[in-house]
Amino acid sequence: MTDFSSKLKYERERMGWSKTKLAKYVGVGLSTYANWEYGIAEPDIATIKKICEALGISSDVLLDLSVQNAASSTSDLDEMLDDARSFDGKPLDEHDRELVRGILKRIYSEK
After folding, report:
1. Cα diameter, the chain
2. Buried b (16+ CB within 10 A) or exposed e, 10-47
3. Which of 21, 23, 87, 108 counts the highest number of beta carbons within 10 A?
């Protein structure tokens, strides 16, 4: 198993999806998808994008770029909320982000 395949499996299971469900969403056969999780093959960039959209994650997560780029990424929580796509495996929409932003503003206005 490669880093990519183990991260792919982890993120799929975190969402509670079966291999079959994610394979269908991405538009590939189950055996093709299973080969990705077993580390036998890896998808192309366009397919990685579809996988990330389905799982509500950044491609940085699957490609192991987030740790390397953490120091160069923004540290402003307000800007990070703009990029947030999911929380605890559930997708976030703009309304959800605004609710979180409002809660954080109330917390920090009291400090």
Report:
1. 54
2. ebbeebebebeebbeebebeeeebbbbbeeeeebeeeb
3. 23
Spatial CA neighbour of 48 closest among 74, 20, 22:
22
Q: Residue 54: left if φ>0, alpha if ψ -120 to 50, beta else—which one? A: alpha
Buried b (16+ CB within 10 A) or exposed e, 78-94: eeeeeebebeeeeebee
Tokens 């189950």, residue located: 30
Instruction: Give Cα 98 distance to the centre of its chain.
Output: 20
The predicted model scores a pTM of 0.58
Run of H or E including 55: helix 45-55
